[in-house]
Design a protein that fits this description.
Elements lengths: L7 H42 L10 H12 L3 H13 L15 H7 L5 H13 L4 H9 L2 H5 L19 E11 L2 E9 L2 E9 L2 E2 L6 H14 L5 E8 L5 E7 L6 H7 L1 E2 H7 L4 E2 L5
Helix pairs in contact: 1-3, 2-3, 4-6
């Protein structure tokens, strides 16, 4: 390293790789701390719930206030821990893995009374890396009030993603079928990568069927002549394809405006009947 001689392109790739390693390390550290906190709050709630003395002449609220003062702790923390435990008295869910969500997200989930709905919100938040703001927005809009039984519901609405994260510009190389495309993605620093992209939240008919061919033609027609598309990516599916939302526009020419105001291809496929709505990818 004393007399490092490296090409500009190699240097740029080195910067990208190191930035990725640093960011991954930071995220893992934050996740580890978060998991410990979640487990600790659950255990605090369990311990508090064990207090069941009929001769204890004090309301639960008054007791938690007194206990908080004794421990020099905001009693709200104790109240929320107790409520958290009572939501999961048999232990934190392992599928989905409740520990992967931050404490703030769990606080937003607590008011969701229906256990099935709460777990669906949790699964979606984990699978799609929702921010707390996105989760709160989904709950406020009662997303899973609409999507439980979505196969027969007319309200099959996908949320637009948070524009700040995991968003890329791409050029469509080929439409593979109604829900899968091959796209060249701009990673920055003049680095492009071609990836197979699976559209989130939908399932188009198989290509061998007439309906599958129709869905593919629908996508091809929508994207014909489009200069670029904007992708919001999530995790990869079991076939190692990136799951993504795809946006495009004939009038908007910036990444941000296409994402916020452009056509949402995933939703168009649902609305047109070319694909069915699914609330979860596996």
């Amino acid at each position: 390293m004393k007399n490092a001689n490296i090409k500009k392109s190699d240097y740029q790739n080195l910067c990208i790789d190191l930035s990725s390693l640093i960011e991954t390390g930071r995220l893992r550290a934050v996740q580890a701390v978060s998991e410990i906190l979640i487990e600790t709050y659950w255990k605090i709630g369990r311990r508090l719930n064990q207090i069941d003395d009929p001769n204890f002449d004090m309301s639960e609220k008054a007791f938690l206030n007194q206990l908080g003062a004794e421990l020099d702790l905001n009693p709200t923390v104790l109240y929320r821990s107790l409520r958290f435990y009572r939501s999961y008295p048999r232990g934190l869910p392992k599928s989905p893995d409740a520990r992967r969500l931050g404490w703030g997200a769990h606080l937003d989930l607590l008011p969701v009374k229906d256990k099935k709905q709460r777990l669906m919100y949790m699964q979606q938040a984990i699978d799609e890396n929702w921010t707390r703001a996105t989760l709160r927005r989904a709950i406020n809009r009662r997303l899973f009030d609409k999507t439980i039984g979505a196969e027969t519901s007319s309200q099959q609405q996908l949320l637009r993603p948070d524009p700040r994260l995991h968003t890329y510009v791409g050029i469509v190389d080929r439409v593979i079928d109604g829900d899968t495309l091959l796209i060249r993605i701009d990673l920055g620093f003049k680095v492009w990568k071609t990836e197979s992209i699976r559209l989130r939240g939908i399932d188009a008919p198989e290509m061998y069927s007439p309906a599958g061919k129709k869905a593919k033609s629908f996508v091809a027609a929508k994207l014909e002549g489009i200069e670029f598309v904007v992708l919001h990516t999530y995790k990869t599916d079991k076939y190692a394809r990136y799951v993504a939302d795809l946006f495009y526009s004939e009038v908007h020419k910036s990444k941000q405006s296409v994402l916020l105001k452009g056509n949402f291809l995933n939703q168009e496929l649902i609305d047109s009947g070319q694909a069915r709505f699914v609330h979860k990818f596996v």
